[in-house]
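Hello,

Our lab assistant flagged a job as stuck in the queue for most of the afternoon. It eventually completed. Since we weren't sure the result was trustworthy after the delay, we are filing this so someone can double-check. Below is the sequence as submitted and the structure that was eventually returned. Let us know if re-running is recommended.
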Amino acid sequence: MPLYEPWAGEPEVLAEAAEAGRRAAAWIRSLPAPPTPCPVGTWLAVTLPDVVEAATASLDPAQCDRMGSDGRLIEGTAGVDAGTASTLAIVPCVLSDADWLTPDQHLRLMAVASVVTGIARLLADDPGTAILHGQVTRMCATLDHATRPDALGLAPEFEQVL
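-- returned structure --
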């Protein structure tokens, strides 16, 4: 297996992703708690933000798709382990039990899970393109957009409907 050589700008891109993940996790932790304690509330307050932080902090473009010594494709993970990926994948299912959150908050949580998963997949599929052409940077901007107060860009009178 040839040695991995980092792409130009890789450390900065990975630091940017880790920071965007920390901001997203902080936003998740700031969401309202359920009226009465429940497992989903704990999962949303602790597990999900920890997973978002861990996924974005552990990104590793060296763990990309490649051919094994036997000629078989080894699917890369970009540093995101199976348990973390699984937790991100179940967000839509868990949200059905988070009825104290608004539809806007549900949508933003699904966006966070999707973007974090997408960043890892971009890095696993083609790290050079993802880093050199700004794809990871754009995904980080999307993550930031999804977790800021005016993310939907709705007029104030429509935000009350949500």
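-- support follow-up --
The delay was a queue issue, not a problem with the job. The result is valid. Residues 157-162 have pLDDT under 50 and may be disordered. The helical segments are 10-29, 39-57, 82-89, 91-95, 103-125, 127-132, 135-146, 156-159.
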